[in-house]
Amino acid sequence: MKWTLILIFGSCLAETTLCWTYHYSNETMNWTQAREWCQKYFTDMVVIQNQAENDYLVSILPQKRSSPYFWIGITRNHMNESWIWIGNNSTWIGNNSWAPNEPNNVHATEFCVEIYTNTGENRGKWNDEKCSKSKYAACFKTQCNESSCERGRCQEAINSTTCLCERGFKGDRCQTPVECLPLSEPYNGYHSCSRGNQTFNTTCRLKCHPGFFINGSSFVTCEDTGDWSGPRLTCAAVECPPLPQTYNGSHNCSRGNQTFKTTCHFKCDPGFFVIGSPAVTCGETRVWSGPRPTCTSYKQALLALAGCGALSTFCCICFCCIKHRQRKKLSQERLPEEGSPPCDTQP
Ligand SMILES: *[C@@H]1O[C@H](CO)[C@@H](O)[C@H](O)[C@H]1NC(C)=O
Ligand SMILES: *[C@@H]1O[C@H](CO)[C@@H](O)[C@H](O)[C@H]1NC(C)=O
Ligand SMILES: *[C@@H]1O[C@H](CO)[C@@H](O)[C@H](O)[C@H]1NC(C)=O
Ligand SMILES: *[C@@H]1O[C@H](CO)[C@@H](O)[C@H](O)[C@H]1NC(C)=O
Ligand SMILES: *[C@@H]1O[C@H](CO)[C@@H](O)[C@H](O)[C@H]1NC(C)=O
Ligand SMILES: *[C@@H]1O[C@H](CO)[C@@H](O)[C@H](O)[C@H]1NC(C)=O
Ligand SMILES: *[C@@H]1O[C@H](CO)[C@@H](O)[C@H](O)[C@H]1NC(C)=O
Ligand SMILES: *[C@@H]1O[C@H](CO)[C@@H](O)[C@H](O)[C@H]1NC(C)=O
Ligand SMILES: *[C@@H]1O[C@H](CO)[C@@H](O)[C@H](O)[C@H]1NC(C)=O
Ligand SMILES: *[C@@H]1O[C@H](CO)[C@@H](O)[C@H](O)[C@H]1NC(C)=O
Ligand SMILES: *[C@@H]1O[C@H](CO)[C@@H](O)[C@H](O)[C@H]1NC(C)=O
Ligand SMILES: *[C@@H]1O[C@H](CO)[C@@H](O)[C@H](O)[C@H]1NC(C)=O
């Protein structure tokens, strides 16, 4: 996809054909033209990053008797500025790169650099020159291109290319996303992932079954390390409010806790009996299925019954009396009658 040229010196693999190559012109031209020529037919003018590359380049270039001068890709804009390589703005200059007494900036305008390829002691040394002078062009051709590395940068040595992968990708062309271990299915829930596979950048969301809730994080992402971003996703059962102790009775639940689907059975102490439903179940909305029953003793029940009976007898009697008095009043108004009702307290 994207590629950045990184020039490094690497050891040659004799059998590999993936490598940059050096090329040169057989005609002279000024520095600007030379660079354009290199860019037209190859990748660019040569960039040297260390002494070994310098030596290798000199071994490739022809040993010309007359005019043994080749332009190389290092320049500066002003005499007080530093020398900069084209391509990546590197400023590498070796201790022995310059020929003796160079750079001398003789014309105050010597802002380009040539390399000597003669056979003398200055072979492989550099000299600053006016950019308008005519020299041969020394070029390189990269083997890296847009399709060399899918998700990485192409790094090139003299005789080899390698892909430096973006995080989350691997493979010789950085074509394979890092895979995470498959997520184990959560208890009482399920995952919903952003992709069919669980590779770098896949996000999986947790959904819980009814009666369960997300305990902790609700999603995880597959990271570039091949690990999921957080602890295992878990669904926990909802819990109903605790059941208080029953007076004169006890309850026994199907589990040690009072979570979803737990059923609690109520039992009353001897001499007491249950009033209400004897069992409640915890529902998915954290609510018990019904009210808690109560325990009542038989004695209380009898007393209550008796009390109720007495009360109702009393009420009945009063009702009768009132009714009777009303009737008596009515009849007295019309025709007087003999006898008195048993509950007539009037003298
Ligand atoms: C690059 O490879 C060529 C041929 O495959 C070989 O002649 C040359 O020596 C190698 N260069 C280096 C610097 O190893
Ligand atoms: C010089 O290079 C050109 C192409 O750049 C080529 O056509 C020509 O034959 C070369 N001349 C010599 C003498 O090698
Ligand atoms: C370069 O620097 C020297 C002193 O360090 C100064 O005298 C000179 O004017 C500078 N030249 C330019 C072109 O800036
Ligand atoms: C080199 O430096 C110039 C000017 O500072 C900048 O515009 C350019 O982007 C740099 N190139 C690289 C490859 O860093
Ligand atoms: C240019 O590339 C060389 C080799 O990869 C590297 O050592 C140097 O730091 C780079 N320079 C810049 C300015 O990026
Ligand atoms: C270059 O010269 C400096 C200073 O003289 C020295 O410290 C350094 O080790 C030299 N580097 C090499 C590669 O010889
Ligand atoms: C190089 O040559 C071209 C064409 O002759 C010219 O237009 C350009 O100004 C020259 N550049 C330099 C730096 O001399
Ligand atoms: C790109 O480079 C690769 C090797 O890195 C090579 O196999 C492929 O043919 C090149 N593709 C193009 C379009 O040049
Ligand atoms: C995983 O799925 C994504 C998107 O569907 C796809 O681009 C990628 O190639 C797949 N990876 C693997 C290893 O199957
Ligand atoms: C990973 O996902 C984030 C957010 O969705 C996105 O911005 C990024 O481009 C993705 N990275 C890759 C390599 O797919
Ligand atoms: C939620 O998870 C924490 C630790 O992961 C655990 O200690 C706690 O008991 C869990 N809560 C429930 C209700 O399961
Ligand atoms: C409740 O009890 C059940 C069964 O014993 C157990 O699986 C579950 O983890 C418990 N839940 C909590 C929150 O303690």
UniProtKB/TrEMBL annotation:
Task: Give the transmembrane region(s).
Answer: 301-322
| Functional description taken from the UniProt entry | Cell-surface glycoprotein having a role in immunoadhesion. Mediates in the adhesion of blood neutrophils in cytokine-activated endothelium through interaction with SELPLG/PSGL1. May have a role in capillary morphogenesis.
Where in this chain does the record put each EGF-like domain?
140-175
Subunit: Interacts with SELPLG/PSGL1 and PODXL2 through the sialyl Lewis X epitope. SELPLG sulfation appears not to be required for this interaction.
Protein name per its UniProtKB record? E-selectin
- Cysteine-cysteine disulfides: 144-154, 165-174, 208-235, 268-295
Q: Which residues form the signal peptide?
A: 1-19
Q: Does the keyword Transmembrane apply?
A: yes
Q: Does the keyword Repeat apply?
A: yes
Q: Provide the Sushi domain boundaries.
A: 172-237, 238-297
Boundaries of each C-type lectin domain copy? 22-140
Xref: SMART domains: CCP, CLECT
| Swiss-Prot/TrEMBL keywords | Disulfide bond, EGF-like domain, Glycoprotein, Membrane, Repeat, Signal, Sushi, Transmembrane, Transmembrane helix
Q: What is the lineage of its organism?
A: Eukaryota, Metazoa, Chordata, Craniata, Vertebrata
Q: Which organism is it from?
A: Astatotilapia calliptera
Among the Pfam families in the record, one is Sushi
Gene3D superfamilies tied to this protein:
Complement Module, domain 1, Mannose-Binding Protein A, subunit A
